[in-house]
From TrEMBL:
This is HAD-IB family hydrolase. It comes from Massilia frigida. It comes from the Bacteria. Keywords: Hydrolase, Magnesium, Metal-binding. GO terms for molecular function: hydrolase activity. InterPro entries: HAD-like_SerB (IPR050582), HAD-like_sf (IPR036412), HAD_hydro_SerB1 (IPR006385), HAD_sf (IPR023214). It holds the Pfam family HAD.
């Protein structure tokens, strides 16, 4: 019976938050207002860490920012972002964990609240074919409109998106021998609670406490 391995991205497979770092990159390269944009980006990040973030409000901000730029310019910016920020942050232990599941023949996917524009090249760099992420709306020319398609892929939304994705593949969650989900955040407790093998990975304090109480394993990938 085939197994399933789901992975959160930021602070789980990466030791950084790709969404927040993308904003920092935009500030650093002068693409956005360095004061007001950074203030809002940091504010949303603090809300995420505290578990109080409204994902719709945040995605309005993040996707609205992307919509300011033509797609060709965005893609060039993202290539620079990958080279300067993401690729240096990818750790061998994260790659090895992914490869372990791939070699075992598991169905492997990244599921993240960060939008697909930011994360699709990261998933490709990590060698992961399947990505569940917030989907930005595109116009006929491939430019981003600033709108979100569907609902956010965060919190309980990760559960509904996982079920919808698996339904498209023809195998429900309970159709796998084992289902793993690796995450660092208490925001992902809804999905961690419905898989057979939840793994608190580089967990924040709230998740570490919750996982310890329930006997979930704790995994630390970035201690070196």
């Amino acid at each position: 019976m085939k197994n399933l391995a789901l992975f959160d991205l930021d602070h789980t497979l990466l030791p950084i938050d790709s969404d927040h770092e993308w904003g920092e990159f935009l500030v650093r390269t002068g693409a956005v207002d360095p004061v007001e944009f950074k203030r809002r980006n940091d504010q949303f990040y603090a809300q995420y860490q505290a578990g109080t973030l409204d994902p719709v409000d945040y995605l309005d901000f993040a996707l609205g920012t992307l919509a300011r730029f033509p797609r060709k310019e965005l893609d060039a910016m993202h290539a620079q972002f990958m080279a300067e920020v993401i690729e240096p942050a990818i750790r061998p232990r994260a790659r090895a964990l992914l490869q372990q599941h791939i070699d075992a023949g598991d169905l492997v996917a990244i599921i993240t609240a960060t939008n697909r524009f930011v994360t699709a090249p990261i998933a490709k760099a990590l060698g992961v074919e399947h990505l569940i992420a917030a989907v930005p709306e595109e116009d006929a020319d491939g430019n981003l409109t600033g709108k979100l398609v569907g609902v956010p892929t965060s919190g309980a939304g990760k559960v509904s998106h996982t079920h919808a994705w698996l339904a498209q593949l023809g195998t429900p969650l309970d159709g796998f021998g084992r289902s793993h989900f690796y995450s660092d955040s208490h925001n992902d407790i809804p999905l961690l609670s419905v898989v057979t093998h939840p793994v608190a990975t580089n967990p924040n304090a709230v998740l570490a406490t919750h996982a310890t109480r329930l006997g979930w394993p704790l995994l630390h990938l970035f201690n070196d």
